[in-house]
Structures are given as C-alpha cells and as structure tokens.
Amino acid sequence: MTKLLLLIGLPGSGKSTFARYLLVDCPQMQIISTDTIRGQLFGGEAVQGPWLVLWHEVLRQFRETVLSDNITIYDATNAQRRHRREVIASAREIGFTHITGIWVDTPVWLCLARNKKRQRQVPEEVIFRMHRQLRDAPPSLEEGLNELLRFSV
C-alpha cells in the first residue's frame, strides 16, 4: 500500500513541525514541501512564483516517491477544498493507494502570533482568508480521503 499523508492547516499551525517529528520517528518517510520547492525553484520559500511550475514539481516528486514505496508527507496548507480534491485525485492517479488527511487545526490567533515570530512572515490577510476557507469548507472524507485525523491545539 503506497501511503500519502496530506497535511492541512494554516500557516503557523505546526504542519512542518509535525512533519519533522514524524520523520524523526520514521526516517524512511519522505516530505514533499511546497515551501522547500519554492526555495529550490524560485530562490526563496516566500517567493510564490507561477503555481503551475510549482504544481508540476510537486507531481514529479509524487511520481518519484511512489516508486520508492515509502510513506510520503505532503506539507502544504491545502486550505481550499477544490485544491485538496485536485491533490487527492492526482495522487491516486500517480499511484498512491491510501491517503490520510491530517488537519492541524490550530486557532487563528495562535497562528498569527507564531507568524509574527517568523523570519518569513505570511501576510495576515492571507492567513485570515485561509482560515475562512477551512471554516467554510473543512476537510472531509467526501473529498476522497481514506482517513481524516484532526489535531486541535
């Protein structure tokens, strides 16, 4: 069974920290991070760059990790339902057979506080927009996930 862990949460929610903790316990896991890819493609994790260029690299890395048969962690906000469905459908098409959504549900006020302490800050209006997207269309099994875990801070 080729597994994908789809992280979901606001910037500053703790998704990347959670992914790193998983990697310590299971070093064979592989992380695909949109922030890391932005850094590689565009010279900085905060540089948004063209989404399609980023997305094609995510898909390329998905194909690579499916071949390794290791558990893959997809570290991105995945705040929009439409985008989550696209990720899930593409992952299944590539060969992931079991997809678990992990919603790191951290209060927006805590995400904002953590964001202020970061060197690379996300604009507050972006965090609020993503918060509304997750509030109005929260992750659900109907999106095509096999499992959905919700961690509330």
Automatic annotation (TrEMBL):
Superkingdom assignment: Bacteria
Stored SUPFAM superfamilies: P-loop containing nucleoside triphosphate hydrolases (SSF52540)
Species, as recorded: Tolypothrix bouteillei VB521301
Pfam families linked: AAA_33 (PF13671)
InterPro entries: P-loop_ATP/GTP-bd_All4644_prd, P-loop_NTPase, Ser-tRNA(Sec)_kinase
Name of the protein: AAA family ATPase
Record field: transmembrane: none
PANTHER family registered for this protein in UniProt: L-SERYL-TRNA(SEC) KINASE (PTHR20873:SF0)
Gene Ontology molecular-function annotations: kinase activity; tRNA binding
